[in-house]
Amino acid sequence: MRLDDFVLATSRCGPRGLDYGELIDLAGRLELSPELVEAHLHFDPQRYARNLIVRTQAFELLALCWLPGQQTIIHDHGGSVGAVRVYRGNLTSRLFAAPDGRPAGLADVAVVGPGGFAAVDRPDIHQLANPGPEELVTIHIYSPPLTTVGMYLTDSPERSQVTLRHSVQDDLS
Q: Which residues, in sequence order, are CB contacts of 23 under 8 Å at separation 6+?
């Protein structure tokens, strides 16, 4: 599925966003051509970089660029569903058990290679990482667009809200 067809398909859901099954289906069919992705690959030596490709009221599509050793905080998606496709490299995905809405230990760890797929439903709490020696590029689709996440620390029961930014230029400001 080309990007313009993806935009058309997602526009039918409006600002409420897609449900988990719809997102998984559409994200799996989206063509990740070099023409779509390569112009949005910008790495940051301080932390992984979030590079916005396109955003509508129903979804956003980003290229995340990871240098070796970079990882996310432990987080939820604040009401959005998410799909991650590995474009280049190997992604480590850690899903946390959260019986009371707080991380209570690892529930699953997966390594996803090029062409592989991971997904996060609304209540999930997870962490993504590039522990390997090579650069990693992942393509993320969030519906509705992901503007804030809940952040969790391993030594605290508190949840903090974090506002996300979408480009290297934003991260440097």
A: 59, 81, 82, 83, 119, 141, 143
Superfamily of domain 3-172: Jelly Rolls (2.60.120.10)
What global pTM score does this model have?
A: 0.90
HSE-CB for 2 with a 13 A CA cutoff: 3
Q: Which among 108, 141, 147 is positioned nearest to 124, based on CA atoms?
A: 108
Distance CA 135, CA 120 (A): 23
Q: Tens digit of pLDDT for each residue in 120-163?
A: 998 899 999 999 999 999 999 999 998 889 998 876 667 888 88
What are the extents of the domains in the chain?
Answer: 3-172
